[in-house]
């Protein structure tokens, strides 16, 4: 009995220690005391529960889940459902956590809170929204603000990923988290300017909130603002301000935030800006997208976009095998998605395997008819690149849902015209017009006016036929247009012109509907038109001006300033007492007192006369004379004497007199002359 009493006292002491440590937040010491209790009684339910809680508080979720699974007989789902689901949630076993919550016999508030988180991670946003609305309606505690923040996050996710127009929740955006989520919802709607204003407000609220804590440093503030700045940069990128976006992205990366999801998204966005340029930077950034835990931080569409960009980067860096491997993996994950097969086709085109690329696209179009339109457009583009315009037209005409679209009709007509296949172009017009006729007949009853698109197609068809000399075929189109608008004189004139070749009598009958010359004459005031502001020529009226007009003209003349004539410049040696030379305007050679140049000045007249001819200096360059005369030392500055006639350098290649020449330069000049003077 004494031993039992001592054991009970020891257990009571241990429980006191557990309670005290729990209140102080020292769960490591509490765990030691709980383990001592379990040594005394290994199946103590309360002790096992406390052990699981201590392990969770210390972040040992795997060990906590192991304790729960080991003692399933004692720790039933009713007792420890929340702890088990929470461990599974933190270990990213989301589906298992959902099953654990749904299997619980009683749905406590804690389980409902966790249920909302699980649904958000599973991207079941409609169910998640309903769960949080129920929590906010039926709960009233200090966590209300957090629930509203989570609710706004769900709405933002719906707007971003499901393109659902968010409803106004009536939440007062008093915190930066609520402002941030509201901005994300606006981005999903494409309201970028409004979203930027919300983010700026969120930044301001964040700074105010953190400034109240004296322990928070400026680095902590910047780290908290990183996600807001990242969203700002994304808006800049969407607006085409790529340089500003890139600068802000790099600033965030330099901060080295701990959120691997944020880093992965920023790195991916930088890669999209780089595209096929700056691939070395992209290869560095792609490492951030491979960080551990990224897959649990991002949505499925975000992860998919990152994988697509990895495949494209592999293609741009000529890693063909890696590109094929990534695109094949993506196609197996999303068989109906277009991008994987388009990337594979692009890689084949880079390898000059265009036929294989077209075949790959054709197989995909046959297997997935719902996505065939976009694939066939790509196939047509490849055919055009190969020069097979007619085959491209055949592919485009096989897209039934686009045959009647004005853009498709225009493209086909242009391509057929380029190939000079006018009959096929007219057939395209005819099929499109018939489609609109059938569509209008199915939608309305009776003789209703045709739609603007229908009439524009008819007019374009008529103009095309007239342009290519098919006036007989254009008559029915023109008659239809005139029937819709009998006052259209232009259409009537075209119709008469077409009938003049087929049925002249009909043309005469129709010409009676043309308006008379009196009704068509334009009543124009010629004088008013000439005097108008835009007239380029105004005729001057004959006759004298009236008194008023004369005064007006005089008044205008007073306003105009007279141009001052500039005085001519006089020579510097001008002497007003001396009479100027009357022949000063004549060239020097033509003046009466010109006596020619003074003799005695020896100047080479190089360049005068025919090209290469010389006057006074020819004797010095004559090799026949220098050979018989005794050698003399060269004049200072005159250069070395030449030794052969073939080495004579033409006058325009000679060095000017007075220039010093070294022996080295003389040798180079000789070598140059040896190759042939002229």
C-alpha Rg (nearest Å): 47 Å
Biggest sheet, open or closed, and with what strands and sense? none
SSE class? mainly alpha
Mean pLDDT: 78
Q: What is the count of β-strands? A: 0
The helicity comes to 55-70%
Describe the structure.
There is one protein chain. It is built from 33 helices and no strands. It is an all-alpha fold and 678 residues long. Among the domains are: 106 residues, Tetratricopeptide repeat domain (Serine Threonine Protein Phosphatase 5, Tetratricopeptide repeat), CATH 1.25.40.10; 76 residues, Alpha Horseshoe (Serine Threonine Protein Phosphatase 5, Tetratricopeptide repeat); 110 residues, Tetratricopeptide repeat domain (Serine Threonine Protein Phosphatase 5, Tetratricopeptide repeat, Alpha Horseshoe). Helix 27 packs antiparallel against helix 28. It is extended. The protein starts with a helix and ends with a helix. The C terminus is likely disordered.
List the helices and strands and how they pair.
Blueprint: H1 2-24, H2 27-40, H3 45-57, H4 61-70, H5 77-90, H6 94-103, H7 109-121, H8 125-138, H9 144-161, H10 176-189, H11 192-211, H12 218-238, H13 242-255, H14 260-274, H15 279-285, H16 294-297, H17 300-316, H18 320-333, H19 338-350, H20 354-367, H21 372-386, H22 389-397, H23 406-418, H24 422-443, H25 452-467, H26 471-484, H27 489-502, H28 504-511, H29 517-520, H30 526-530, H31 547-559, H32 623-628, H33 663-674
Helix pairs in contact: 1-2, 2-3, 3-4, 4-5, 5-6, 5-7, 6-7, 7-8, 8-9, 9-10, 10-11, 11-12, 12-13, 12-14, 13-14, 14-15, 14-17, 17-18, 17-19, 18-19, 19-20, 20-21, 21-22, 22-23, 23-24, 24-25, 25-26, 26-27, 27-28
